[in-house]
Amino acid sequence: MPAQDQGHELSIYNSRGISRHHSSQPQRHSESVHATDLYSLPQELHDIILAYLDIESLLQLRRTSRFYYHVITPDLLRRLFVRNGLASLSLNKCCYECLASPGLDRLVVDKNKGAFTWQSVCFRCWSNRITVDYHINPWPVIQIANGDEGYICQFCNWPVVNNGRDDGVDRLHAGCRARRRLVLLIWLFMATLQFGIGVLCAVLAWTRYKHQSGVLIPSSLDFALAMISVAVFICRICTNNERKYTRLLFTELVLTVLRIPPVAYSARTTVLHRTNDGSLAKFGFGIFLINLVFRVLDFVGHALLNSGYDPRRFLQRGLRKRMKFVFGIATFLVYFAYIPF
User: Fold this and answer.
1) Which of 47, 223, 249, 340 has the fewest CB atoms found within 10 Å of its own CB?
2) For the whole model, what pTM was predicted?
3) Over the Cα atoms of the chain, what is R_g?
4) Alpha-carbon span 202 to 103, nearest angstrom
5) Is the dihedral of CA 283, 288, 292, 294 positive or negative?
């Protein structure tokens, strides 16, 4: 390595004249020093000791104990290996958030940072930043630390390396493409089922319960709101304007809330006027009850989507089983209401 690079790799403590050769002190005990004795040293001494290590040694030491996991932080590496805004070349081999070193092909260059600063961030930390707003805008080209280019997968948030080709196909992993088709088919089936249940409720209200205003009027109102919701949905999926998209999404949430009282009142009225003989009355009550359940699930899904929940969160690596289950339920409710991509 050239002399200039060697000086750049050294930490700031070496430039202060601290000698590497200290006089050896006599050992107090014949046995090895316990770890607790090492941990009891002042923080300043730990900083001086760590200043003699290179980045790879620091990262290995960080994985040895919980103490050094909290001592060796990204801020410490910045103090040691960033001078005058220039980061060491070896520093860009690890993530500036979690200090992971998965390899250059698993690190993204964060262009929001300075040109010569610490820019590398791992796929996991990068995917945590992706929000639902990315679904409605063209995906930006990202740069991988090894020089390749690609996109963020629209299903799992992990980069797809395709050297910047904008053909649309390579914006999804092969496995994610198959999962996305499956999710879209399931959502299309559920959307058709919801629309069919709504139409069936309106038909029952106009035929079976046409003489009962407690069913006819609320069902007709729900059908009218459903038609407005379909129109708003079509407008939302056809726009690329982020502000218009957000407003239409909130309008769908309001329409979903407005549809719950009429459906609930219709189901309640069918219970009060249900006769004991004949299965048609029981069938009508069941249809109105299913429509009410669908409206409640729709409301929860739209509320999660409007609150900024990313339905791809349950695909993140390293989640506990409990959190993965909770995120999976939330994602199902969002996909039940609308596929946001």
Assistant:
1) 47
2) 0.59
3) 30
4) 59
5) positive
